[in-house]
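We modelled the chain as a single entity of 342 amino acids. Its sequence is:
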Amino acid sequence: MQAAVWYGPGRENFRLEKIDRPLPSAGEVLIKVQKCFFCAMHARAVLVGHAKHNPPVIFGRMLAGDVVAVGESVTKVKPGMRVTVNPEKPCGECFYCQRGALGHCLNPTKLQPGGMAEFVCVPASLASGIVELPSSIPYEFAAFTETLACILQGIDLSNIGLSDCVVIIGDGGVGLTFLQLASLRGATKIILAGKHDDSLEQASALGADCTVNVTRESLKEIVMAQTDGYGADVVIEAVGSGETYEQALTLLRCGGTAVGFGGTPPGTEFRGNPNLIHYRSLKIYGSYRYTPEHFRQAIELICTKKIDLEPIITNTVPFSKLTTEAVDIHNQPDCRALVIDF
């Protein structure tokens, strides 16, 4: 079978290769991949490397496909089922798991090799995380489940209340997903900021009360005007730059909450004003990964169609061109989410 193997930084080190097709052992499930996402982490790894991944690696945590074979003792999953899979399971025993921080498990079981291959074999330890899909749910929507689970964790940390004003910095696929979840949580006013008029128009269609093109307008002036000078209750950073992390703190009311979701390039500096944090009693959270409960909630939101993914998934790359075209497509300004088509 064909697989996309990453051997380290540099486009020439990300290439399609022929490898042996896996055979499921006892408790394992073999999936023919139909869709898999290529995200910012993958683009960053190809270009400059990634601290959390040691090559060679077959990426692909966000996938959906068809079960083609099962190992002995597998009874709940059958060949022919349309499925997605939770690609990670916390150990339940380490320092962080014992404190409820399952997303920071020190010894998680991970789906590796991943879904950037024609077939993926789900180990027995992850087979319980396989979810059958309704026929009405497209593979690409199901493959978005893990990303949505991560965003749900960020929403939980924000603790949005029914009367809150929420500012979302970032008009990409993640920002537009945060927008929909903030609305579902009951935010009274949602302000979304970005640089792309088409995405900002889409944000308005998805329920944003106010959009700001930061290339032409002052986000701080507009936030203060919209909040009678107090600032927002919640600010979510969904870009991944030191500048936007710093800006997030300046937009909050006293006692407000900032959630940092965007991952930044290596060497990014954050020079936030400590007096803002101290005198304004700000709460600051970093949001990374997700828990099994977030994954369950995410697949439920997708299967019940409470979240609109049509405007989120904007670009497709054929698997045959993944290693040569995906980075450039992903980095185009109008790309919100890029799915690999097998």
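As a brief sanity check on the tokenised model: The mean pLDDT is 97. The domain at 2-144+313-341 is CATH 3.90.180.10 (Quinone Oxidoreductase; Chain A, domain 1).
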